[in-house]
Amino acid sequence: MRYEVLPELPPDGPLVRNFGKPPDPEGLVVRFFPTEGESWVGKFARGIGGATGAIPHPDQRQVIVIAAGSGFVVDPDAPDKVWEFCYAVREFFELVEVKGLLFHDAVTLIAVNSRNDWCRNPRISWDGFRGIRTEGYVVRGEAWCPMSGRWLSFTYGPIDRRTHGRLLSRAAIRDPPK
C-alpha cells in the first residue's frame, strides 16, 4: 500500500475523486498507488476540526485519511468503496499490543484492529477527553462531566470492548459496511 499526501491538487492527470459531503474545495488531497494500474487522487472533505493526515490501516492493505477531523477508510485498489467513519476525529493513537488504532472525537472512542474489526463506544464523555494514554491492552484517560464540573477517570479495553468508569453507556460494536 503506497500513498502520499499532496500539498494541492495536481495540475494534470486523471479526474480527482471527491469524498465527503459536501465536496470541499479546500479538502485534503492524497494520491494512491493501487497494486495494479495507474495512481489516482482523492480529495477528502474536512470535518469540524481536529486531526489531519494519512496513516496505514492496521490491516496493511487500506489507508486511513483524516481531513480536519473527517475520518475515511480507503482501499487504494477499490476507490469506489471509501467509507467515512467519523467527522470529528481530534486525536489518534497506535495500539501496539492489539495491532490497532484508537481515535477519539469529543465524546466517543473508536478502535480498529488488523482484522478490520471496528468498535465504537457510544459515549464516554460529555465534552472532551484529556490525558489519553495507552498502557498495554488498555486505554486510560479523563472525560469531562458537566454535572460534577470535573474530569472523571476512565479505562477502556479495546480487546474486550468494556469501559470502566464510563459516564453513560456500554460499548457497542459497529462494523464497516460490506
- Ranges where pLDDT stays below 50 over 5 or more residues in a row are 165-178
Q: Helix and strand string, N-terminal first?
A: EEEEEEEEEEEEEEEEE
Largest sheet, spatial ordering of strands: 9-10-11-12-17
Structural class: mainly beta
Helical content class = under 10%
Shape category: globular
The percent range for strand residues is over 45%
**Which radius of gyration do the C-alpha atoms yield?**
17 Å
Report the strand count.
Answer: 17
Describe the largest sheet: 5 strands, antiparallel
- Integer average pLDDT: 85
What do these coordinates show?
This protein is an all-beta fold. It has strands at residues 2-6, 17-19, 28-33, 40-44, 53-56, 63-67, 70-74, 83-86, 91-95, 100-104, 109-113, 118-121, 129-135, 138-145, 150-157, 162-164, 172-173. 0% of the residues lie in helices and 47% in strands. The radius of gyration is 17 Å and the shape is globular. It has a five-stranded antiparallel sheet, with no helix packed on it. Residues 165-178 have low confidence and may be disordered. 31% of the residues are buried. Strand 15 (150-157) and strand 16 form a beta hairpin.
